[in-house]
């Protein structure tokens, strides 16, 4: 007896959600299809019922992982209507975001893979960069809302989290997050 279309769609969505989480946690190179399908409660052989190739899965999971963070950034910016940029900075440069990459922003974990990836991967990454720039640009730092300020802010956010996750010294990790947060807030008059 075959699966209904609804069951097939749910299975596919489950595989994508798990893959999106795992590539944020481990990167794209570490994701094994057999382990992924097992975690999703499916057989390895069923993979090709849902995806044409590993690259197809990776591209779709990366796009999902990248899009997941957008809603979180919007909520963070709305946390304090008087200081929306501060809310976004504080949420992004938090210990929680650093310590939970599986639910964090995929711009941090997928930058290198997107840089080496094909057009579809680059386009998904670019879409989120543009979306985040637009969001940040729409939150005036000093009343100007300049694109350059948004680019510096986004680059500092992503870079600080990447480095804070990569260093072994917990004090340096905290210092990176705190210092960049303070400088972004000071530089934009939101501290």
UniProtKB/TrEMBL annotation:
Residues 9-69 form the HTH tetR-type domain. Coiled coil: none annotated. Keywords: DNA-binding, Transcription, Transcription regulation. Residues 32-51 bind DNA. It comes from the Bacteria. This is TetR/AcrR family transcriptional regulator. It comes from Actinacidiphila acidipaludis. The lineage of its organism: Bacteria, Bacillati, Actinomycetota, Actinomycetes, Kitasatosporales.
């Amino acid at each position: 007896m075959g699966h209904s279309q609804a069951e097939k769609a749910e299975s596919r969505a489950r595989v994508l959600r798990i893959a999106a989480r795992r590539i944020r946690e481990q990167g794209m190179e570490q994701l094994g299809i057999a382990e992924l399908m097992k975690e999703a409660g499916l057989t390895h052989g069923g993979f090709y019922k849902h995806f044409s190739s590993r690259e197809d899965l990776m591209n779709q999971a990366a796009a999902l992982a990248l899009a997941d963070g957008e809603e979180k950034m919007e909520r963070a910016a709305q946390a304090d209507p008087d200081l929306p940029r501060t809310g976004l900075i504080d949420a992004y440069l938090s210990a929680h975001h650093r310590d939970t990459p599986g639910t964090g922003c995929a711009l941090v974990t997928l930058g290198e893979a997107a840089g080496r990836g094909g057009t579809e991967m680059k386009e998904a990454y670019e879409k989120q960069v543009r979306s985040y720039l637009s969001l940040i640009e729409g939150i005036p730092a000093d009343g100007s809302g300049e694109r350059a300020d948004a680019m510096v802010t986004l680059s500092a956010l992503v870079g600080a989290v990447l480095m804070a996750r990569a260093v072994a010294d917990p004090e340096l990790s905290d210092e990176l997050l705190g210092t960049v947060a303070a400088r972004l807030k000071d530089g934009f008059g939101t501290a």
